[in-house]
Amino acid sequence: MSGFGYTTAIAATFGIAFGIVGGLKVAPSAAAWASRTVLPQAFDRSVFDPAIFDDWGKWPSSLQRQSAEPTDPELEPNTPVNALSSPAARDYNRAMELADQAVSAYLTARESDEGDRSLAFIRREQFLWRASLQKLAAIPQGSNLYKQAAIKREQYQRLLATADGKLFQAESAFLTDILSGIQVNPDLVHITLCQIDPVETRLSAQTVSQSASQQDSQAQSGQIDGDLCRHHRGDQPMASPASLIKVPVAVALMHKVTAEKIDLDSEIYIDPGNFTEDAQGAVIEVGNEYPLRKVMSSMINQSNNTATNQLIDYVGRDYIAKALNDLGYTDTYAGHKLIGDRVMPQNPGSRGNRLTTNTMTAMMVQIYQLETPGDEELVSALVSQHDQELGYEALKDLGPAVHWIGEKTGQNNRVLGSTLAVKIGEERYALTVALDHSGDVVAMQQSIRAIAAHLLETGPLSGRVER
Question: pTM above 0.85?
């Protein structure tokens, strides 16, 4: 929802009085709203607390919402909401105040000619919808206000989703600018960047806890967190995952190892039917047995195709699909065996592999957060990566504040890709870049270097939580 449709939705939600100009409905000007509002000259994330907003964004008296008239069992019937003194009524009233302020922020952002100022008010609008929803969620089912609160929650969640989308698009625009600056066709590139560590939200302490739960839920669902991530075409599948698909295979393996209590030092046989050409230096050979840990590590840090094919058989295609689905990676398929230059392995699979940079980056965030059994093994394999031509090479000259902390690369005749972890200052990031129908190593290095330089200059995507 955007533009006029979004304005109409807000109008319908709040019953705003509209004038008719040229047959079109036109919202009151933001200036009229601002005349009764104490608005900041500059946006300051450090002072985001609902308590300071009590005098912001008040609606003009001519446009005041009419008070609904639910009842409270302790009071007379038809007592106006603003006269109720129960905790539920106070939460409801506060939610309405915050929603009023969200609309004011929306209108100010819409009419602002200054990009930074408009973005600041979109952030403010997003914050206020969230704060309002928090208050509505606190109203218990036993309250007479619960049904009204449920209706408002449904409305405000839609408006919050629109604000989230606008903000995400605006805050991700620098990725497109970077691609233009290095003269790379943005239609052939997928980029997803996520901050790995938890962040400080712009809400109260109670909402910080709630927001952290929402972030955990997003991580568990295999989705990127809109507050902590930016992307360019990150939700669209790469032309091919190439060897990046080995990370999802490793994640499914660790799922199986943990669930079935399998010893990573137990040995597995490498079937000759799984042979295909490997990168130079690969040490896993068919006809031999190797510890499971070594086979997994060789799949990641040496990009060993034969090891990958054996692990697909060992874990099982159905198990891989279910494990990834259970972890929330529902847009990923990792069951087709890897094929070298000429040799086709036995039973390669009838369905091609599928992956987006959003999913790949969400997976890297989970791995580096070390929240799942087996993640330390995966980090160890990523840190010992042999191929350092892409991300490592791109970052090595950016100075002492930038540290490469692991990577997996992939390349075939349809894609060149890298997913890596990097520490910039005090923050850790996961970054995945894929170039469709390209083997341009220089363009890949330039993209990664420019994104890291941007973070070095501008700072974190969001502030950290102090623990």
Answer: no
